[in-house]
Design brief:
Shape: rod-shaped
CATH class of one domain: Alpha Beta
Distance between the termini: 121 Å
Strand order of the largest sheet: 2-1-3
Number of helices: 4
Number of strands: 3
Largest sheet: 3 strands, antiparallel
Strand content: 5-15%
Radius of gyration: 40 Å
CATH superfamily of one domain: Ribosomal protein L30/L7
Length: 118
């Protein structure tokens, strides 16, 4: 082997070695456009709830309810009916409008209530 052949083989080996070694991809620089989109990201907004409007009571169509028995130890659905009618403690009296929805709750927990028509 001559010196030139040996040099050529070394060059080929180096060239193959360079091809087999993978270089890490260069990091992309943040562009001005990308920076603007990050700043312009929409912020989470909270929705304010509207205040509850008082319900006008029609004359002659109201019921007076008094909680006469404790809600302790009752079914969860019965406790929910008591709360839905606006009752919090025993012997508390509230007036509710006579609607089918209120009548259904009253019928469900009638054993705990004293009901009077106003």
């Amino acid at each position: 082997m001559t010196d030139t052949e040996q040099v050529d083989k070394e060059k080929e080996v180096k060239a193959v070695a360079k091809k087999s070694v993978k270089k890490a991809a260069p990091k992309k620089k943040a562009t001005a456009k990308a920076a603007v989109t990050k700043k312009a990201a929409p912020k989470k907004t909270t929705v304010k709830k509207a205040a509850a409007k008082p319900v006008a009571k029609p004359a002659g169509k109201a019921l007076r309810l008094t909680l006469t028995r404790s809600k302790n130890g009752r079914l969860a659905s019965h406790k929910a009916c008591v709360a839905g009618l606006g009752l919090r403690k025993m012997h508390q009296t509230v007036e509710v409008i006579d609607t089918p929805e209120n009548r259904g709750m009253i019928n469900k927990i009638q054993y705990m209530l004293n009901v009077e028509e106003v």
